[in-house]
Every structure is written in structure tokens, then in C-alpha cells.
Amino acid sequence: MSNQNPVFIPGPTNIPDRLRLAMQVQTQDHRAPDFVNTLAPVLEGTKKVFGSASGQIITFPASGTGGWEAAVTNTLSPGDTVLVARYGMFSHRWIDLCQRHGLDVRIIECAWGSGAPADQFAKALAADTAHQIRAVLVTHNETATGVRSDISAVRKAMDASDHPAMLFVDCVSSLASMPFAFDDWGVDIAVSGSQKGFMLATGMAILCVSPKALAAIETAKLPRTFFDFKDMMNANASGGFPYTPPLQLIYGMRESLNMLFEEGLDNVYARHTRLAEGVRKATAAWGLDLVAQSPELYSDTVSAIYVPEGFDSNALTDHAFNAYGVSFGVGLGEMNGKAFRIGHLGSLTDVMVLSGLATIEMAMADLNYPIDLGSGVSAAQEYFRSGRTTPMKTAA
């Protein structure tokens, strides 16, 4: 029965029955004339979630990492310079990907728990008078540390130096859960995936690409075949795919968009803020600290929480799984053994989050953590009750 418990990892997220059923479709001909009626609305609807009117939606059968590779290989050439800050596991992995592709990666080292350093980006860009830097890479929501960075501040830093570099943003664990403003923030490529805010199975990399980034394809010399933007766009224009598409995920994406729009994107974002704040209230009641260094950095999709000195966060998450059949996020990279993560994104409600808080509390009590059993749950309950006059309605 434990497989009926929700997961509290930062993704893949819980899949609502409505979406599981939408993906249970029989094989269909993706080269049939009517496939365009399925694909085109999905691409158009996804633009609204990115907050873009001018961007081009491009999808690939892949996870978010495939989206990173597509962004880099379609717009850059061997030896090109990119600027990126390392402040968590996923910014680190993006650095590794760029280095493997032979790019000149200029790295700004930051403390884990901090966000994208707009001021340091500004200095680096102002010093780059020859405009060697071709792209600035930023992780919007650092899943390893529970940190949300200010993308608009990074764009302002770029504009202040009148630098022509492109802005690439990883929004894998933020899109469809927190506001994203592709056009307003001046993003050139945003990379996401199907398995987090969209509440689907893993397997679809989802990108929004600006006209400026599309123009960069003409001079980019990094090799690409499977991840070729042009091949995908040309096929999509006639309602097709350059190879076999992830048909079940496309049907699931169509229904996911229906769910998000039925709930209303503003309501989706408010729900995530509410769930996150409930978790933060519980964390404070336990006497534990978030990895995120300050409130403006707090993520609304995942909270990374330090365990007390002398305790092992991996032992805690293992015990929660083995004893109670519930998964929580382990500490990644520098957080390994030091912090656990509570994912609170996708198909979740107040009641479901309370079950997760109760479970991790029991696990901590079992392992003799210095907490009072029920303290975190009670704090979250009081917060969730505050101002509540009617049951929360969600499409999830």
C-alpha cells in the first residue's frame, strides 16, 4: 500500500489520476493529417505558462538535461565563452555540460544557499568590453538548496552594461509552479521539463526560445542531430515530428495545460506559495534552518533543510522511506548528509503536505532528533487554517 503515499521529492512529482488517464492512449499515427490538431494547441498553450508572446516552443523526448544540451548546441560554437555562477548542484551540472562541449566557461563561485549574483554578473559583463561572453546561464530555482534567484535582476545587470550576451535560464523546477516572465525578463532560452510543475512522467524537455536565440542558430557550430532546433521547428510547422514523438506525453501535456488553466495560473502560484510557507512554518517550529540564506531566496517548490549537527540527513530520508513508505529529497552535492529536501510542487494540497510533515516528524522522533513531536505539523496547521473560510479548490 505504500505506493499510494504521495512523494515529497522535488520531482518527478505526483501524477494526478486525470493525467495518468490522459496518457493511457492507444498508439496513434503521428504522421496522420490530424496530428497537428493535437500538437499545435499544446505548443501554443505552453507559451502562456512561460509568459511569452514572441517565444518559440520547442520540445524534445528528453529530460531537462537534454534541454540544456539543445540550448547550448543550437546557439554556440566550440571555444565560445559563457558566464555562469555555481551555487548548487544543478548550476554545477550545467557548467559540466558546457565544459564537455568545449566551451570556455567563466565561473563565479558562490556559497550554496545563495542565489544568482547579479552584481557579480554586472562586473564581469562590464569588464568584457570585447563582448567575448556569448551567453549568461542562470538556474532560476536551485533544487539542491531550495533557492529561487531573481532573473529580472540578472537581465538588468546585462542591460546596464549594454552587453549583447544571450540569457539562458533553467526553470525545470519552477515553471508551472512559480511565476515566470520570459518576455518581461528578456530571457533568450528557458529550459524546463514535463515531470515537475506539469505533473507528468519524465520524458519531455520543453524550451522557449527567443528570436535572438533562433538567429544564433545560423552561426552556431556545435554538432547536434537529435536536438536540432531547425529540424524540430520545420517538422512542427506542418504538424509533425522529425522522428517518433513521445505521443503519450503530448496527450498528457494537453490535459496538464487544461488543468493549469482551469485552476488559473495565479491560483496555481498562490497555492505553491501557501504550501511552501506551511513547510517553512514547520521548519521553524522544529528549530531547524533552511539552506536558503534569506527570505527573498526561498523557493516555493522545494525546501532544503539542514539537520542538526551530529545527524545524517541520508539516514533520515532512508528511515522515512523504510519505516513509513514516503520519499523525501536527499542532500545533493555539498548538502549530502547535511540536509534533506521537502518537495512541495505539482499535484499537492494542504492536507497532503501535512501528511508529509507528520511523516518526517515521526522519522526525526524515531532517530532522536531534538524536536517536539507534532510541533511542525501544528505550526503548519495553524498557518493553513488562518484566513481559510472555504475549502481550497484545485484542479489537481
From TrEMBL:
Domain of life: Bacteria
Modified residues annotated as N6-(pyridoxal phosphate)lysine in this record: K196
Keyword Cell membrane: no
Chain positions recorded as substrate binding sites: R341
One GO process term, biological-process aspect: glycine biosynthetic process, by transamination of glyoxylate
Keywords on record: Aminotransferase, Pyridoxal phosphate, Transferase
Ranges of residues in domain Aminotransferase class V: 29-281
InterPro entries: Aminotrans_V_dom, Aminotrans_V_PyrdxlP_BS, AspGlyoxATase, PyrdxlP-dep_Trfase, PyrdxlP-dep_Trfase_major, PyrdxlP-dep_Trfase_small, SP_NH2Trfase/AEP_transaminase
Transmembrane segments: none
GO molecular function: alanine-glyoxylate transaminase activity; L-serine-pyruvate transaminase activity
Cofactor(s), by name: pyridoxal 5'-phosphate
Record PANTHER family: ALANINE--GLYOXYLATE AMINOTRANSFERASE 1, AMINOTRANSFERASE CLASS V
Family indicated by similarity: Belongs to the class-V pyridoxal-phosphate-dependent aminotransferase family.
Record-given protein name: Serine--glyoxylate aminotransferase
Organism of origin: Ruegeria profundi
